UniProtKB/TrEMBL annotation:
Residues 1-28 are annotated as: Disordered. It comes from Polyporus arcularius HHB13444. Residues 7-17 have a biased composition (Low complexity). The lineage of its organism: Eukaryota, Fungi, Dikarya, Basidiomycota, Agaricomycotina. This is BTB domain-containing protein. Residues 18-27 have a biased composition (Pro residues).
Length: 359
């Protein structure tokens, strides 16, 4: 035990409990990021630009990086210079040979930059790099000139020029036109439901096209989404005119898909589609029945209700849809514009050309 006049040469023990985050005082909001020995200085506005992210977590955690305001990382310093420009509000895309590190091609630089954006958890930059760009204005088609990622719709992190209205529709703040919503790498299901009763044995089936989003995404506040096993699902019960569904590279008109749902034997086109679906999709069938009773003024009667649900599941490399506002006296619907999907067999082929044939 030390006397009052003695001092210890050992470093003080640090508490395992982090200090509460501190708001930087005015004029003292500089943070240093050291990438392979190269220093970059960021302001609080920069680290908050695309938040939440890795920088904000480190510098507001109450741990060592927050106290020292220094973060050391082993990443590419030349690419980080692009990240700093992005955090400063500059458009850094598309990449050009002049903007990327020497000796690195544009394709490689884009792949590495996306890996860095994912590492730093800069979600908006990730969305910009994975979404196609609109090169032609779409006002003439009744659509907005903006496009958003489905991830941003679910997480309620839409850009300022796009709004999600109370009914769940996603439109341009300026024009009010529906905005194209882009989804990538999600599961895609074609679900045919038929509900019949004794009094209506030939009731027409209904069709919905569903995008199931990985559960790691934030939940949406939209009432048009529901959860299935923890994963948010976007259900579409309508389609855009001339919309197309590509199944393993073969195009099918969405109008044919909906006609097939109502009557698979209607035409040679829908018969071919029926054969394609049954031959490619992961097929599941659910049957259930129940008896419903009710009182109709004078008497009580029973009716047997039969439910049948047939599902064809695929992997969607991309999908475009719209959440359109409701028209007068009509229910609002989510509409599919186009999608490119692959069957399990094709997915396995892409992993290993000989794997699918062995299963």
């Amino acid at each position: 035990m030390l006397s009052p006049n003695q001092t210890s040469t050992e470093p003080p023990l640090l508490s395992s409990v982090p200090e509460p985050p501190q708001t930087p005082p005015p004029g003292n909001d500089i943070y240093t990021v050291i990438i392979r020995g190269e220093e970059f200085q960021l302001t609080h506005a920069q680290i908050s630009f695309d938040s939440p992210n890795h920088f904000l977590d480190c510098f507001t955690s109450g741990f060592l990086e927050s106290r020292e305001r220094v973060l050391r990382l082993d990443r590419n310093p030349s690419l980080f210079a692009l990240i700093v420009d992005y955090l400063s509000g500059y458009p850094i895309l598309p990449l050009t040979p002049d903007s990327i590190p020497g000796g690195m091609g544009v394709t490689t630089a884009r792949r590495y930059l996306l890996a860095d954006a994912q590492y730093y958890r800069l979600q908006r930059l990730c969305s910009q790099m994975t979404m196609p760009s609109l090169r032609t204005p779409l006002g003439w088609a009744g659509l907005a000139d903006e496009m958003v990622n489905l991830r941003d719709v679910l997480a309620s992190t839409l850009p300022d020029e796009v709004i999600q209205q109370a009914d769940g529709s996603v439109v341009s703040r300026l024009s009010g036109n529906p905005v194209l919503i882009y989804a990538q790498d999600v599961s895609f299901r074609i679900v045919v439901r038929r509900l019949t009763t004794d009094s209506a044995p030939n009731r027409e089936p209904s069709l919905s096209l569903e995008l199931s989003v990985p559960s790691g995404l934030a939940e949406s506040k939209s009432s048009q989404l529901h959860a299935d096993g923890g994963d948010p699902i976007v259900s579409m019960t309508d389609f855009e005119r001339n919309g197309v569904l590509h199944i393993d590279g073969s195009p099918h008109k969405l109008s044919d898909v909906f006609d097939w749902c109502k009557s698979p034997e209607k035409s040679s086109m829908t018969r071919n589609l029926d054969a394609s679906l049954r031959g490619t999709g992961v097929y599941s069938l659910t049957d259930s029945s129940e008896e419903i009773s009710w009182v109709d003024g004078r008497y009580r009667c029973l009716s047997k209700v039969n439910n049948r649900e047939v599902t064809y599941s695929y992997w969607a490399d991309m999908a475009l849809c719209t959440f359109r506002p409701a028209r007068e006296n009509q229910v609002r619907k989510n509409m599919l514009v186009r999608a490119k999907v692959r069957s399990l067999h094709r997915v396995l082929d892409d992993l290993d050309p000989g794997l699918a044939d062995t299963l």
